[in-house]
């Protein structure tokens, strides 16, 4: 996106909360791969979608630093909760520190470990919304594990489904991340259990509704 257009958009949507600004600054100073964080535009979109869907429970696969988690928590009703799963235990202290600074911390349940092992522990159809933003090679596996946990009419949001535009380029066989995204997109396109649309926001967000 043209920088001027991006600046225009960000100046005409709801402002980024101060805590999220602080997290953004800290991530860019302390961590590699800061681009993995949702950021202002996507964060406000995640909050808005949560407001629209009004789930009682949200499942997030891939916490990273907790930025998107806090956006989901913002959008929840008073008694709602977010269950977020992060496989990198080295991030745990940083994540918990970010959550502890928020008045929404009581709505968040952090799980450290392999999502493919943790997701089956939840009851079927116990979530109204899920967000997949983790290992790209495992996207379809995450999706298949998540779908039974989503209530009928519930939604799954899948991040990075345009993957820097690589989905329309020639892909090297060694590029497993892009192959994983392509595999996911192709399988989802032919999956009649769900309705789906790709939004060209940031790096692509696919919105999936369970029939």
Mind sketching the topology for me?
Elements: H1 3-11, H2 18-30, H3 39-53, E1 57-61, H4 67-75, E2 81-86, H5 92-100, E3 108-112, H6 115-118, E4 127-132, H7 139-146, E5 150-159, H8 176-189, E6 194-199, E7 205-210
Parallel strand pairs: 1-2, 1-4, 2-3, 4-5
Antiparallel strand pairs: 5-7, 6-7
Helix pairs in contact: 3-4
List keywords for this structure.
single chain, 211 residues, alpha/beta, Rossmann fold, seven-stranded mixed sheet, 38% helix
Give an overview in words.
The structure is a single chain. The chain has 211 residues and is of the alpha/beta class. It has one domain (3-210): Vaccinia Virus protein VP39 (Rossmann fold), CATH 3.40.50.150. It is built from 8 helices and 7 strands, in the order αααβαβαβαβαβαββ. The chain has a 7-stranded mixed β-sheet, with helices on both faces. Strand 4, helix 7 and strand 5 form a beta-alpha-beta unit. Helix 3 packs parallel to helix 4. The longest helix has 15 residues, at 39-53. The termini are far apart. The model has no long low-confidence stretch (mean pLDDT 96).
Short structural summary:
The protein is of the alpha/beta class and 211 residues long. The chain has helices at residues 3-11, 18-30, 39-53, 67-75, 92-100, 115-118, 139-146, 176-189; strands spanning 57-61, 81-86, 108-112, 127-132, 150-159, 194-199, 205-210. The chain has one domain (3-210): Rossmann fold.
């Amino acid at each position: 996106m043209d920088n001027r257009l991006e600046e225009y958009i960000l100046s005409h949507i709801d402002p980024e909360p101060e805590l999220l600004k602080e997290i953004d600054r800290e991530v860019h100073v302390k961590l590699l791969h800061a681009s993995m964080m949702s950021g202002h535009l996507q964060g406000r979109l995640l909050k808005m979608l949560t407001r629209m869907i009004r789930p009682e429970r949200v499942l997030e696969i891939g916490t990273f630093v907790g930025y998107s988690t806090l956006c989901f928590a913002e959008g929840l009703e008073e008694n709602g909760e977010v269950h977020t799963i992060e496989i990198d235990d080295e991030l745990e202290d940083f994540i918990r520190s970010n959550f502890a600074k928020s008045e929404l911390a009581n709505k968040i349940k952090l799980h450290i470990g392999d999502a493919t092992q943790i997701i089956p522990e939840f009851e079927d159809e116990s979530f109204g919304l899920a967000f997949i933003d983790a290992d790209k090679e495992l996207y379809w596996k995450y999706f298949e594990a998540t779908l039974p946990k989503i209530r009928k009419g519930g939604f799954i949001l899948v991040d990075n489904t345009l993957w820097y535009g690589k989905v329309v380029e020639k892909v090297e066989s060694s590029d497993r991340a892009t192959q994983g995204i392509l595999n996911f997109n192709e399988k989802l396109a032919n999956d009649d259990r769900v309705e789906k649309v790709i939004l060209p926001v940031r790096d692509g967000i696919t919105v999936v509704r369970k029939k």
